[in-house]
TrEMBL record:
Name by which UniProt lists this protein: Methyltransferase type 11 domain-containing protein
InterPro entries: Arsenite_MeTrfase-like (IPR026669), SAM-dependent_MTases_sf (IPR029063)
One Gene Ontology term of the molecular function aspect: methyltransferase activity
PANTHER family xrefs: ARSENITE METHYLTRANSFERASE, RIKEN CDNA 2700097O09 GENE
Length: 254
């Protein structure tokens, strides 16, 4: 599963890393995925996401949008076996020459969420995490279940995704620690300044024009952030999982 790179930023006040496992929480996240799947089209992309839809058309090779939180590898395998999905496309119509399809996910998978909260981030007790572009809310639910963060705040531009997140927050009674703001993150300076951790999973690459991306990237990053190396050997994963985890980067704000 292809996951474009993403960054996680945390302030230097945070301490040592924490590790724990919670099987019940995995089950709860899978139940949330079931609920969300029943509310969304198979690609989990909405008509209201015009910029994202334009991006689909710009992909050089045939690409499918498969949300990694809603559809894990086993789920995709079973859909392929039932003939409802394919990992390949025919390069010459009618022939047996095929090539692998590109897969794009707009959410973290369960495996990535566990890596993020169990291995990447330190103990978040009393801390505020902001997810820029919270979409289905996966980072917020993962943070609720896998961390002790005091507040998890999602900022999401798309109102339909905000409604879906509110539905899950209400159903699973997450409102004591999760808030979702329907807003453009560019208007949320004070919120970002108050955050201890900021998660950005592919928020700009797929939703801004190249000129807009260049404007945001025109910063001397090394002056204000330092990349913290991550140990990918701490958890057992397949080659595909490892490739996904390699796309996760942690930066400490100096
Ligand atoms: C790739 S998804 C991130 C999903 C989620 N954070 C996760 O990791 O599972 C990017 C989201 O950012 C939202 N987005 C794009 N530009 C935004 C902006 N300026 N302000 C707030 N949200 C934005 C999009 O609507 C989309 O839902």
């Amino acid at each position: 599963m292809h996951q474009p790179s993403c960054g996680v930023y945390y302030s230097k006040e945070l301490g040592d890393f924490d590790e724990f496992t919670q099987d019940n929480n995995d089950v709860m996240l899978k139940n949330i995925a079931d609920d969300l799947r029943s509310c969304l089209p198979p690609e989990a992309v909405l008509c209201s996401e015009q910029l994202a839809l334009q991006k689909i058309r710009q992909q050089p090779e045939p690409t499918v949008h498969v949300d990694a939180f809603l559809y894990d590898e086993d789920f995709i395998d079973s859909l392929c076996e039932e003939g409802k999905m394919s990992r390949n496309y025919c390069t010459v119509c009618g022939s047996h020459q095929t090539a692998p399809l590109g897969f794009i996910s707009h959410s973290f998978s369960l495996m990535e969420l566990k890596f993020l909260f169990h291995q990447v981030l330190p103990d978040l007790s009393g801390k505020v995490l902001v997810d820029i572009g919270s979409r289905l809310g996966t980072v917020l639910y993962g943070g609720y279940l896998y961390s002790s963060a005091a507040q998890l705040c999602g900022v999401e531009l798309n109102g339909e995704f905000c409604q879906l997140q509110e539905m899950i927050i209400k159903k699973y009674e997450f409102s004591d620690r999760i808030k979702v703001l329907h807003a453009d993150v560019c208007t949320q300076g004070p919120l970002l300044q108050s955050a201890d951790v900021i998660v950005m999973n592919n928020v700009f690459e797929y939703f801004l024009t190249e000129a807009e991306q260049a404007r945001y990237a025109d910063l001397q990053l090394s002056c204000w952030v330092e990349e913290i190396p991550l140990n990918l050997d701490v958890c057992q994963q397949s080659e595909t999982d490892r490739e996904a985890l390699e796309q996760i980067h942690l930066y400490k704000v100096l």
